[in-house]
Fold this sequence. Notes:
- With 267 residues, this protein is of the alpha+beta class.
- The protein contains 11 helices and 7 strands.
- α8 packs antiparallel against α9 (169-185).
- The longest helix has 22 residues, at 103-124.
Amino acid sequence: MVGSAPGPVSINDRLRYTLGRGRRGQFFRGAGCNATRVRANVPRSGVCDALSADADWLHVLVRSWPMIDVTSLADAAGADVAQVLTDALLDAPGWRDTGPDRERHRRLVMWCYHRMLHRKALRWGRPGYAALREGRLVGVAVVFGSDGWPLPEPISTLLDVPAFALAGLSAAARGARAGATMKRAHFDGSHVYLSQLAVDPSAQGSGIGRALMARVMADADAATLPVYLETAKPENVLYYRDFGFIEAACERLPRGTPLWLMLRPHA
């Protein structure tokens, strides 16, 4: 939705993505959840042991797990955004294909690149989102609209010069080839482009990615626009299918890693 970024999610939204199956990562469907099921998912330690079986399930939840606030990407510091993106994607197949081979070198290049991406998102992007847990940034969704993508040149490339220079000739050449492939294959209709969805490794599996995705999809549906993204991670293909994405095409990155192009029609 074009306009001012929405504020933090409501308590009901927080409950839906804080609770879940397994590692608490699955949204509950419907308007609420059974109290018995909630108590079964809450660790029975500390305050939970002191509560009776008939205790209010909301109090059990609120006292057991930290709440997550989803707010505007503009509220997050650029260095923190770069750090979350870099930590989350350091060993992602796409970056291992295009970036430097040595991990420390790749980390430095990625941090620099993501720092510039945050600046680009604030200048040319749609409302992006940041997930905060107890005041610390733990998740990021970087979003652009088709009216702002591809980014204006030559300024976009100039902003990437420091990262390309740090990468070295071979990795910079691979990055340029990968970028050209992604631009050529990019969905050409009106859409919302989910450029990055990342969760800090320490917070993965807790529903933060789903909370960010829910906000992105809500904005797209309000604007009656499809959502487009790319992923080079096979597990993510199944993950995004759960949100209604389909594989529109598959490309190859410079060293042969498959890159899936996925599209979610608007509701």
